[in-house]
Design brief:
The complex is a heterodimer of chains A (295) and B (436). Chain A is mainly α and 295 residues long. Chain A has a two-stranded antiparallel ribbon. In chain A, helix 2 crosses helix 13, helix 3 packs parallel to helix 7 and helix 12 runs antiparallel to helix 13. Chain A is flat. With 436 residues, chain B is α/β, with parallel strands linked by helices. The longest helix of chain B is centred in the N-terminal third of the chain and has 38 residues. The N and C termini of chain B lie far apart (60 Å). Classes of the chains: A mainly alpha (295), B alpha/beta (436). At the A-B interface, helix 1, helix 3 and helix 12 of A face helix 1, helix 3, helix 4, helix 15 and helix 16 of B.
Chain lengths: 295, 436
């Protein structure tokens, strides 16, 4: 009897493996194989197809590459300014939209989530035209007499950064809001009721109940947003192409330039990509540590 | 249980099988290609960008060829230039030229980076064209190791497009703009701004095309003759170009634009009085039909102090290359018979598309001497052809765009007050670490 049980269990195990075999195969083929290839590539130097192993040469070059550090600096600036602003926005909007007395909730939720379903390239191109020197934003601001001269949104190093931050905030706030909303709906309304009976004000409820209970979601959204911002590419590529004068160059745009805009240097481009991987690992680790979540 | 597992396995195999079969399909196509080659009905695929210019020109070449060779099959495909570069790089880097076209258009600035980094990927043209028939400055970028790989195409010769009506208002005639230098240009610009309120030109601070035109007019480049050593620090010509650019920017005569369409809008809407750029802009200038008769083209201004500077330069320009894959013989034959030698075709290119080629015998043709009413009856094509012959030959090398990205940053620094020598020596050291 035991032997029969054993074969049945074995068989069940085998079936289970068969079920996931396809997926495992595909993941190995399309995720792990390229990842390992890219790592190997990062140790090679040479232009185009003339690649040869050159030890740590690319990594040494990375450490003395001024353009790379400009790209890292820009990317982190976007990260530090944009991610907190966006998460606070998303949280505030979700709390407002979660109000049981609010009417047309569905409409507002859809409206704020809508930017996330637009194509990255399409919205970037639209932003580029909105923020052009003769674009709609400048026209509106001038007609309202807020400005006397058009702002060089895309041609000025400072304003170009601002434009990118506005664009990515517009695109991703609604996306994060959805996570907060779903989490808010899981908070028992009796907690708020009790707080109200105890005389807690609205802001007090927000800071003492909502925020602590949303902590796991704050952590989740900040990690995903960090990863997203470190890989920022579409907006930069389509709005500023990294300009003016590398003022908005992101790490991903730099990788693109190294591979396709300059004389192709795929080895060094792979090295720069691996620097993003390392940064993401470090940042995610820090965020989890700081949030003190031991689950 | 067993049945399910078998079904799954089967499904998996089928997936793999379809993947393989689609592969073998392309192989088959390539094979039929080779077979077709022997019978002479090989299909030639051409990739290029710019529908109104390069594609239109290639279609004319195709029509001319098909008229004489009714069997020939030529397919012209339009992609954006960036897409072509990506596809070529990924395709050639993977070591397989299948899936790539037979003929491809490559910008002269990038030509060497393809020819040198993918040796054997391109077909030598050998006897298909006579190199001495083409403008000399085009031969540097299109050849490598003493062998000719490209069919030199459009000239990219630059001129200074000017609005005669604005100049008149400011008290100048077209004659005053013949053979001027950049200082005189700036003075005229200031007068135009004072009298008409219009800016003299429009510039994208993220595009150093003007610097490139200025230094080539004096036979200088970002790299030394060898095409690999950066030549930025102590490059007197580059220094003068930077200084002239700063003067221009500080004179308050520049309308800043941020991309191609706002660049076009700058002159199409009548906001600027001049456009210093390549001759390929002619169709875009002419796009505003209501400005007919108000434009003229004068020789490109030269650098005042650079001894070698002439009133001719080049911006952009591209050439045709044949990839070393199935069908290369047919492709070489096609290019040699059309853009490599057909004078009549070059006349059509001028009249129908406005392409100024670099094939010298074509300049004798009638179309090159025609007067253009849009430019007040000026024989612009003849002028461009004349300037084409004067363009100094420089070696663009492999790194034009990499160095330019470094220079853009240093240009911003220079405009914001950094010493020029420091800016250029910083650029030099960055370029040296970048290029290895």
């Amino acid at each position: 009897m035991r032997a029969v049980n054993h074969t049945i269990r074995n068989r069940a195990k085998l079936t289970g493996w068969l079920f996931i075999a396809g997926a495992v195969l595909m993941i190995c083929l399309f995720y792990f194989y390229p990842m390992i290839q890219a790592l190997l590539l990062s140790f090679k130097t040479g232009a185009g197809a003339n690649l040869h192993f050159d030890g740590l040469a690319n990594y040494k070059r990375l450490l003395s590459d001024k353009t790379f550090f400009t790209a890292v600096k820009n990317t982190f600036l976007f990260l530090i300014v944009q991610v907190p602003v966006m998460i606070v926005f998303a949280m505030m909007i979700s709390v407002l939209l979660n109000d049981s007395k609010l009417r047309f909730k569905g409409f507002f939720r859809t409206a704020i989530f809508l930017p996330c379903v637009t194509s990255l390239v399409a919205y970037s191109v639209v932003f580029k035209y909105l923020f052009g020197n003769d674009g709609l934003i400048n026209l509106a601001l001038m007609n309202l007499h807020i400005l006397s001269e058009p702002i060089q949104w895309i041609s000025d190093p400072f304003w170009a950064k601002v434009t990118i931050i506005i664009a990515i905030t517009w695109r991703w706030t609604g996306y994060n809001m959805i996570f907060f909303l779903s989490s808010l709906q899981n908070i028992d309304s009796s907690i708020y009721e009790a707080a109200r009976i105890d005389g807690a004000s609205g802001p007090r409820q927000f800071f003492s109940i909502t925020v602590p209970l949303l902590k796991p979601i704050i952590l989740f959204t900040s990690i995903t947003s960090t990863i997203g911002t470190l890989q920022l590419f579409d907006e930069i590529m389509n709005i500023t192409k990294g300009g003016p004068g590398n003022a908005t160059l992101s790490i991903s745009q730099y990788i693109y330039n190294l591979s396709f805009k300059y004389t192709p240097d795929f080895g060094y481009a792979a090295t720069v990509s691996y620097s993003i991987v390392i940064m993401i690992i470090v940042l995610a680790f820090l965020q989890i540590k700081l949030a003190g979540d031991d689950k | 249980m067993k049945k399910k597992a078998t079904a799954l396995l089967l499904a998996g195999f089928m997936l793999l099988a379809t993947a393989c079969s689609s592969n073998s399909n392309t192989d088959n196509q390539a094979n039929t290609g080779t077979e077709g080659n022997t019978t002479g009905s090989q299909k030639i695929t051409v990739w290029a960008w710019d529908k109104n210019f390069n594609i239109a020109a290639m279609n004319l070449a195709k029509d001319a060829y098909v008229a004489k060779n009714p069997d020939a099959q030529i397919e012209v495909v339009e992609y954006a230039q960036d897409d072509i570069i990506q596809k070529l790089n990924t395709g050639l880097n993977s070591g397989s030229a299948s899936g790539l076209p037979n003929i491809v258009l490559i910008e002269d600035y990038r030509a060497q980076s393809f020819l040198q980094t993918y040796p054997d990927a391109f077909q030598e043209l050998g006897d298909a064209i006579k190199t001495s028939d083409f403008a000399e400055y085009k031969l540097g970028p299109t050849s490598f190791g003493g062998k000719q790989y490209g069919v030199p195409f459009d000239s990219g010769v630059v001129g200074l497009y000017v609005r005669t009506d604005y100049l008149q208002e400011a008290g100048y005639t077209v004659d005053d703009l013949q053979d001027i230098d950049w200082q005189q240009y700036i003075e005229i610009g200031k007068a135009v701004k004072a009298k008409t309120g219009k800016d003299m030109l429009t510039q994208d601070p993220n595009d150093l095309g003007l610097i490139r035109m200025m230094i080539q007019s004096a036979g200088s480049w970002y790299l030394k003759e060898d095409g690999t050593t950066p030549d930025l620090k102590d490059n007197a010509v580059l220094k003068e170009a930077f200084e002239s650019y700063k003067e221009l920017m500080n004179a308050d005569i520049v309308k800043v634009n941020s991309d191609w369409s706002s660049f076009l809008a700058g002159f199409n809407s009548g906001d600027v009085a001049s456009v210093p750029t390549g001759n390929w802009i002619t169709p875009s200038v002419k796009a505003s039909a209501d400005q007919s008769g108000k434009w003229a083209v004068v020789p490109f201004p030269k650098l005042k102090n650079a001894a070698n500077s002439v009133h001719a330069s080049n911006l952009g320009g591209s050439s045709w290359y044949v990839l070393n894959n199935d069908g290369k013989e047919a492709a070489v034959k096609f290019l040699g018979a059309t853009l490599g030698s057909d004078v009549a075709l070059y006349q059509k290119l001028v009249t129908d598309v406005g392409v100024v080629g670099t094939y010298k015998p074509a300049a004798e043709g009638e179309a090159y001497g025609a007067a253009d009413e849009f430019f007040g009856g000026q024989k612009v094509i003849a002028d461009f052809a004349k300037w084409t012959a004067e363009i100094p030959n420089v070696n663009y090398g492999l790194h034009t765009y990499a160095i330019e990205d470094i220079l853009k940053v240093e240009m911003q620094n220079f405009l914001n007050g950094t010493e020029l020598d420091k800016a250029l020596s910083d650029a030099q050291s960055q370029a040296e670490s970048q290029i290895q």
